[in-house]
Amino acid sequence: MGTIESRKEKRIPVNELPEKYTGFSILLPHGVESMVYTIDASLNGFGFNSDSPLDDFIVGSRLVLYPNGTESPVYGKIVFSCKTDKGTRVGVQLQPYGGYEVYNKEIQEILAKTS
Questions:
Q1: 5: phi > 0 → left, psi -120 to 50 → alpha, else beta; which?
Q2: Which of 5, 24, 76, 94 is most exposed by smallest CB count within 10 Å?
């Protein structure tokens, strides 16, 4: 598990996450649905890669994200986005409603096992 220095927050790599958090179906601001692939996660959010253009991920925008195989969304605010050789890299801060409590509980359990 790595630590993002600017946040001092433990991050869980994608290979240690439950399957449902390895990818998300998202609704982009202009109404198009897209699939994104998790890089890592923390209690407060996660990072992902997308094939969608950088213009679809404006910092400050809000996203509705559906974890793999679920119909209960989590809601996030884009806090970081940049173009990389693997597509668009995005950081999302989750908002405390929707499926946030379930997500947060599951991430806390993973962190407790690895501490």
A1: alpha
A2: 5
Nearest to residue 39, comparing CAs of 5, 55, 16? 16
Arithmetic mean of pLDDT, 22-48: 91
Q: Which two tokens stand for residue 26?
A: 């998202």
Q: Is 24 helix (H, G, I), strand (E, B) or coil?
A: strand
In angstroms, the CA 77 to CA 79 distance is 6
Give the H/E segment covering residue 72.
none
Element holding 104 (H helix, E strand): helix 100-114
Eight-state DSSP code of residue 111: H
Q: Count the neighbouring beta carbons within 10 Å of the beta carbon of residue 35.
A: 14
The DSSP H or E segment spanning 49 is: strand 45-50
Cβ(54)–Cβ(71) below 8 Å: no
Residue 87 has pLDDT above 80, yes or no: yes
